[in-house]
Every structure is written in structure tokens, then in C-alpha cells.
Design brief:
The complex is a heterodimer of chains A (about 325) and B (about 375). Chain A is α/β, with parallel strands linked by helices. Chain A contains 12 helices and 14 strands. Chain B has a 6-stranded parallel beta sheet with strand order 2-1-3-4-8-7. In chain B, strands 5-6 form a two-stranded antiparallel sheet. In chain B, strands 9-10 form a two-stranded antiparallel ribbon. In chain B, helix 2 packs antiparallel against helix 12. The chains are: A alpha/beta (about 325), B alpha/beta (about 375). Bound molecules: thiamine diphosphate and magnesium ion.
């Protein structure tokens, strides 16, 4: 049986189910308890689990990001909510220097099974400080796993996997997707890490993306279909581990590839995937791997500028036309 | 602008009535074990410095000489299963907790026999079976972690097991860490969330070359920091292990009973430079001599001789046994092979995927034999 629920409900169901299943799991962050979540993701969780397991913190990202690590080292399974991943920058030391390196530096003695989650990417005219796409910054760090769902189904399944994972997971949500609805089974399920999903099969050009831009890719694919260009759209679902095999298999069929990544282009998941596709599909490619990113500028406030800066269907259609010699 | 120079740790320990001298009441066997622990740390550090000169140890290396009474007195004041965590000057804490010198030395030599298979080095000792959660290289980083360890012990005791909070975490930090944001966030969190962690500041008067007067507001009385976070605090003289124990024990008991955080300033001194490359131009020879005259090892040895009839011969045999133990540790470490190159890709993730080979505990885990009962 499936029902149609919002993305935020899917996230909450994942957390609540895991908290019912495992007492070691707790949720901590700013406004998660009494306020019911800044974006209502944790609505009702305080009522069900009480203040010992759904814990409001002061505005101390470095403090509670690090507190979660200590708790994880002792065997608990913290879910730490960042109101926005933009605010994780003040917690860079714990999340990058401690969580992903604890297992290594202790020579295998103690790891860090923790989930950090929150809104990533442009929320809509929030200006540069609040519009971070952290995937490029953080995917550079060995020891982290990064999941970035685009549907309620994946949001729930991936978050449950994240909570059960023994390694630190950065879970990137999008404020712009929280009210998106989708079908989610009533039965228990999880979505494994490292398995991309072909969300639209096609034969002419592989389009790879993650998170919210997957929707723009689908819009672009509809547009391009009218021109006779049949795109295969792949949602990577996790950036680390990256399912390069699914991408490579697709490119071997289509012989063309465009990567769509909302982070800035320089040293990003997009550049990494392009490099790997060039390596693995050198003889299959009929052109260079095209890339669509946010423009290489700070996120602007003005609506028209922000629209222009982010990846969008127009930029994607242009990129696909260019690499498939249809420009 | 000039500020008055702070006189360094200082007032002679307040004499305590006999019934408050908790350390003395523990009897000569316990005091003797403390003496041995301090001697072991001292000897270990002397050999560490030699090995560093011989280039057997690389990287940054910070020795604990002069501060031995702090680690030994503090760990004596808590239970074996109370977690501890500290900064990069971590050799003393790990040894006081029971990490065998051979595993510690092998770690610094970058060998597979090291407590972290040679992947952490001097600044990142871990000994989880002895509830020692690191060795952390970034100044102040361990303060939120220590708060989290204590959060977890309480959560486990109360939320999972339905009992009452039974453990206290000791989170050690240097005086330099007082000026890190993470420290202040950790204190506030510990206070608002009622977390049983004691922030133990080892105030040795300097962070590298910056004296506490130059770098820290209210440096003459850092317990003022605790007032703002609504927690109990104490100042403890750190050059005498009995003072450390006498100051810490009631604090630990109170913190455990109330399940609340606390803050202690332990006044101590590092006899050597900040790290192995420090000419110590920022302090005077007179100042150094003054503290060297307060050597915590001599103090306890003198006490044992006058109060418990420790003889010169017994003391000599104690130092000899420690010297042998450390010499053997060095030999053992030298013979431990460097980690296999596969180790590069183990312990990155618990899970195996891509180039990553999963995780495995250090060989130390199988090898260790309890040093103490
Ligand atoms: C965030 C950070 N900044 C700078 C350093 C370099 N550093 C290492 S130790 C140290 C001094 C710290 O002094 P203190 O906290 O008093 O500890 P002590 O060395 O006296 O034990 C500095 C500046 C560091 N490790 N981390
Ligand atoms: Mg210091």
C-alpha cells in the first residue's frame, strides 16, 4: 500500500521509525522540539519521544555538532539537524576534522555513526550567506558519505539507511522540496547507498544529477524530446559512495553525457563525474562531457539573478544540444 | 597598554585537616602506585624526547613533563569506566589510564603495534577499552566531544537503561583552549542540558609562547568563565598529586551526584618547551627553576619517605623498574613493523566500498595484557 505524502513527512517518518526501532537514536538541533522544527520536519516528534530524545539546542553549531560526535563515539546514533547546511560552516572543524577521521585516527578503535541533515542549496532569495550548496566542499573529504534525495520515496529510504549506517552521513535536503509530494509505501523499506536510479530512460544522451536539479533535468528532457533528443536521466542519489557503474553503463549506450550539479563548477561532484566518465568511456564518447552548475559567482538576492545563476531547464537543454551537436 | 603580570601558580597548597586529606587516607599502596605512574610518565617522556632527537618520532610532539600530577591525580579521582578525553599533549593521560608504554611508543614510531596502528601519532592517542577517547589535535575541539561523551553516558544510563546517571566524563584542555569558540559553546550546552562533564583546565600558564595574561581575559582567575555558564568551579594546585586528588574527588562526587557539569582550574607548569622545537624565550630561567623546585614526583617521594618509610633503596628500585619498562617499550616499538600499505585504505569507512577495505581493530587489542589489576 502506498500513500501520497510530503517530502518533510517522509523525512519525519524515517526518523520516527528509526527512533522507535532503536533507542540509541536521538534528534538534536535548533528548534527541533518545542517549535516542531524550523521547517516542520520534526513536527510531533517531541510529543512522541519526549525531551530526552528530541532535544532543542541553543544556536551553537560547533558545540552540538561536536557533542553528537562524542555521543556517537560512545555508541549512540545521533541525528543532528542543521537548520541549513549554510550554518554548518561554523561547525567545519567537528564535521570535517573529527567525525570523518575518528575511525582512521583511532586505528579502527572508534568510529562515528552520526547523521547530519538539513537544507542545502538555494532556499529562494536568501542571499549568499544562506544559499550554500555544500556538496562540492564536503565531497572532497574522505570518511564522509553524502546522500541527496529528490523524491519523498528516496528521502525516507535513504534517511533510514543513513541512520543505520556505521559511518558519518551528510544528508542534504532542499527547502524547496519539502512540500513536494510523492508516493511512499506504508511498509518498511530502505534505499541503499551507492545505487543510482534511472528516473527517465532514454537513448540519445545521459544526463546525471543529484537532488533538486533532477527535476530540472526531467523538465529539460521533456523539452528535448519534442526536438527528437531522447535523454536518459540518472539520479545519483548518493555522491559518496558514487555509483559510477550505472552512469558508465548508460554513457556506453548513449555516447553523450551532461552532468548537472548545483554546486559551483570548480572541483565539484560535476567535475569529478566528468573526469571519471572521460576515463571509463573514453572510446565511447562522441563529445566532451557537458556540465551545468551554478554560475561561478556568490548567490545573488534578486529573483531574476538567482534564477539565472542556478542550474535550470534552459541551461540543461542548451548543454545537451551542444554536446549532441544539435546546437 | 600594560597589565599587571600574573604571578604564576602560586599560593602554597592550603593545609587540609587530616580528615579532609582524602589522598593520604587512601594509604601507602595507592600512593605508591601514583608515584610509579608519575615516574613512568616522566621516564616515557624522557625517552620520547631522545627518540625524537634520533628522528624515530616525526611530526609535532608535546611532552607532559612537569604536569604528571594532573593526569595521575585526576584519573585516580574517577572510576575506571568514566570516559576521559584530552588535547594533543596526551601521553600522560593515556599512560595514567593504563595504555602500555609499548603501544604508545609504537604509535609515535608509526608502527602497526601502535595504539592506532600508527595512524594517529603523538597527538592522537586512543585507548577505548580504557575509556580514553583521544588525543585531539585541534585546540578546543575535544570540548564538545567530551560533552557528547558525557551526554551519551547519561542517555545510556537514564533513557536506555531506565536507571540514573552514574558516570562522569573528564574533559581536559589547556589554558589556550579557553579562547576557542567551541569551548564556550560546549560549556553552555553542558550547563543547559545538565551534562555530567568536568572541564579540567591544565593551566600551565602558556599556550605556546603566549602567556595567559597576554591571551586570556580574566587570566588571573579563569574560574570566572564558569560563572557565566552557571557551573561549580574550583582552583586546584597541580604540582602535588595529593592536592589534585583532594581537589578533584569532591568535585567528581558532586558532579556525579548532581549529574551536572563543573569546571576546575589546575595550576601546573610544563617543564619543557611547548613542543620539541621551542627555545622558550618567552619565560625566564628563574621562573622555570621555581617550578622545577616544585617537582610533583619529588614531592610525593618526599612524602612517602617521611610518612610511610619509603626507603632510598625502594625508591631506586621503583625508578629502575620504570626505566626497564620504558626501555623495553622502546625496543618493542622498534621491532614492530610499519603498517602494511593496505592500512592506507582501512578504517576510512566501517563499510567496504570502492577502494576502501573496511575496518579492523589495532593488533594492540589482542595483545594487551592488563598492566594493573
Ligand atoms: C585551532 C588550533 N589553532 C592553533 C593550533 C596550534 N597550536 C597547537 S598547541 C597550541 C597552544 C595551546 O596551548 P594550551 O591550550 O595552553 O595547551 P598546552 O600546550 O599548554 O598544553 C597552538 C596554538 C591548533 N593545534 N589548533
Ligand atoms: Mg597551556
Amino acid at each position: 500500500m502506498t500513500r501520497t505524502i510530503e517530502f518533510r513527512d517522509a523525512l519525519r517518518e524515517a526518523m520516527s521509525e528509526e527512533m522507535r526501532r532503536d533507542q540509541r537514536v536521538f534528534l538534536m538541533g535548533e528548534e527541533v522540539a518545542e517549535y516542531n522544527g524550523a521547517y516542520k520536519v520534526s513536527r510531533g516528534m517531541l510529543d512522541e519521544f519526549g525531551p530526552r530524545r528530541v532535544i532543542d539546542t541553543p544556536i551553537s553549531e560547533s558545540g552540538f555538532a561536536g557533542l553528537g560526535i562524542g555521543a556517537a563515539m560512545m555508541g549512540l546514533r545521533p541525528i543532528i539537524e542543521f537548520m541549513s547546511w549554510s550554518f554548518s560552516l561554523v561547525a567545519a572543524d567537528p564535521i570535517l576534522n573529527n567525525a570523518p577521521k575518528m575511525l582512521y585516527m583511532s586505528g579502527g578503535q572508534v568510529g562515528c555513526p552520526i547523521v547530519y541533515r538539513g537544507n542545502d542549496g538555494a532556499g529562494g532569495q536568501l542571499g549568499s550567506t544562506h544559499s550554500w550548496c555544500v556538496e562540492a566542499l564536503y565531497s572532497n573529504v574522505p570518511g564522509v558519505k553524502i546522500a541527496i534525495p529528490h523524491t519523498p520515496y528516496d528521502a525516507k529510504g535513504l534517511l533510514k539507511t543513513a541512520i543505520r549506517d556505521e559511518d558519518p552521513v551528510f544528508f542534504l535536503e532542499s527547502e524547496r522540496l519539502l512540500s513536494v509530494t510523492g508516493e511512499v509505501p506504508e511498509e518498511e523499506y530502505t534505499v541503499p547507498f551507492g545505487q543510482a536510479k534511472i528516473v527517465r530512460p532514454g537513448k540519445d544522451c545521459t544526463v546525471v544529477s543529484f537532488g533538486r536539479p533532477v527535476y530540472f533535468c526531467l523538465d529539460a528532457a521533456e523539452e528535448l524530446a519534442k526536438e527528437g533528443i531522447d535523454c536518459e536521466v540518472i539520479d545519483g542519489r548518493t555522491i559518496r559512495p558514487l555509483d559510477i557503474d550505472t552512469i558508465v553503463a548508460s554513457v556506453k549506450n548513449t555516447n553523450y553525457c551532461v552532468v548537472v550539479d548545483q554546486s559551483w563548477s570548480f572541483a565539484s561532484p560535476g567535475s569529478e563525474i566528468a573526469a571519471q566518465v572521460h576515463q571509463h568511456c573514453f572510446d565511447d564518447l562522441d563529445n566532451y562531457v557537458g556540465r551545468v552548475h551554478s554560475d561561478d559567482v556568490p548567490a545573488p538576492y534578486a529573483q531574476n539573478l538567482e534564477q539565472e545563476m542556478l542550474p535550470n531547464a534552459r541551461k540543461i537543454t542548451e548543454a545537451v544540444r551542444a554536446v549532441t551537436y544539435n546546437a | 597598554m600594560t597589565r599587571p603580570m600574573r604571578t604564576m601558580p602560586t599560593a602554597p597548597p592550603k593545609p587540609r585537616p587530616a580528615d579532609e586529606n582524602l589522598a593520604a587516607a587512601l594509604g601507602p599502596e595507592v600512593l605508591r602506585s601514583w608515584l610509579r605512574d608519575m615516574l613512568l610518565i616522566r621516564e616515557f617522556e624522557v625517552r620520547t624526547m631522545q627518540a625524537y632527537q634520533n628522528r624515530q618520532i616525526g611530526g609535532f610532539c608535546h611532552v607532559y613533563i612537569g604536569q604528571e600530577a594532573v593526569a595521575v591525580g585526576c584519573t585516580a579521582a574517577v572510576n575506571r569506566n568514566d570516559p576521559i578525553v584530552t588535547a594533543y599533549r596526551d601521553h600522560g593521560h593515556a599512560l595514567a589510564r593504563g595504555l602500555e608504554p609499548r603501544f604508545a611508543m609504537a604509535e609515535m614510531f608509526g608502527r602497526i603495534g601502535g595504539c592506532a596502528k600508527g595512524k594517529g601519532g603523538s597527538m592522537h592517542f586512543f585507548d577505548v577499552p580504557n575509556h580514553m577517547y583521544g588525543g585531539h589535535g585541534i585546540v578546543g575541539a575535544q570540548t564538545p566531544l567530551g560533552t557528547g561523551l558525557a551526554f551519551a553516558t547519561k542517555y545510556e544510563d537514564e533513557v536506555i537503561n531506565g536507571g540514573s546517571s552514574s558516570r562522569v566524563t573528564l574533559c581536559f584542555l589547556g589554558d589556550g583552549a579557553l579562547n576557542q569558540g567551541a569551548f564556550h559553546e560546549a560549556l553552555n550546552l553542558a550547563s543547559v542540558l545538565d551534562i555530567p562533564v568536568i572541564f579540567v583546565v591544565e593551566n600551565n600558564g602558556y599556550s605556546m609562547g603566549t602567556s595567559i595574561t597576554r591571551g586570556t581575559s580574566m587570566g588571573h582567575d579563569i574560574t570566572t568563565k564558569a560563572i557565566g555558564y552557571g557551573m561549580e568551579s574550583a582552583v586546584i594546585e597541580g604540582m602535588d598529586v595529593m592536592d589534585v586528588y583532594n581537589g578533584m574527588k569532591p568535585m567528581v562526587d558532586a558532579c556525579r551526584a548532581a549529574s551536572r557539569p563543573a569546571f576546575v582550574e589546575i595550576r601546573t607548569y610544563r617543564f619543557k618547551g611547548h613542543s620539541m622545537s621551542d627555545p622558550r624565550k618567552y619565560r625566564t630561567k628563574d621562573e622555570e627553576a621555581k617550578f622545577e623546585a616544585e617537582d610533583p614526583i619529588d614531592k610525593l617521594a618526599d612524602y612517602m619517605m617521611s610518612e610511610h618509610g619509603l626507603s632510598e633503596d625502594e625508591y631506586k628500585s621503583l625508578t629502575k623498574s620504570v626505566r626497564t619498562e620504558v626501555r623495553e617499550a622502546v625496543k618493542w616499538a622498534e621491532q614492530s613493523p610499519p603498517p602494511d600499505l593496505d592500512e592506507l585504505y582501512t578504517d576510512v569507512y566501517v563499510e567496504r566500498w570502492g577502494p576502501y577495505l573496511g575496518t579492523s581493530p589495532p593488533p594492540m587489542m589482542q595483545e594487551r595484557s592488563e598492566r594493573r589489576p
